[in-house]
Amino acid sequence: MRSDGxxxxxxxxxxxxxxxxxxxxxxxxxxxxxxxxxxxxTPTGDVWRVSRPATYRALDRLEALGLARSTHTEPGKSAPPxxxxxxxxxxxxxxxxxxxxxxxxLRDVRSALLLKLVLIDLLGGNRRRLVDAQRTAFExxxxxxxxxxxxxxxxRMWRHHSAVAVAAFLDDL
Length: 173
Description:
The protein is mainly α. It folds into two domains: 110 residues, Arc Repressor Mutant, subunit A (Orthogonal Bundle); 48 residues. Helices cover 58% and strands 12% of the residues. The chain has a three-stranded antiparallel β-sheet with strand order 1-3-2. Strand 2 and strand 3 form a beta hairpin.
């Protein structure tokens, strides 16, 4: 674990760290299993992939922040012993609060909002509260972007089509 003060430099967790925390809230496991859950071809990994080295960095930071803790080691199959991590009460509370908080920008739908939705599903939660809060949070942005823009400004057209897609996505959820 790093003790160089890097833990406190960033005021919030990265999406990698939220993903790792969500996976261990689902069930305590060691880094190798967490990395496999966050690789492609899993519901979570299809939305947000985290490499094995990034998984271990996330675990170090979560532990340093008191959001996760190592519980025990298990013998590895033809490998060194593996440390199993579990969330702390503080970690479970932080994840719950994050999962209920809408993302601030339309551009965050593809990353943070989708990650939140798959983690809610992984944990057996109800995504309705987040979807309703997200719709409310985006109301003014969507109202401003949904009318078809006049002219041929590519950036404005892109924002319009993105807003249409986000509005339809939230409605479908």
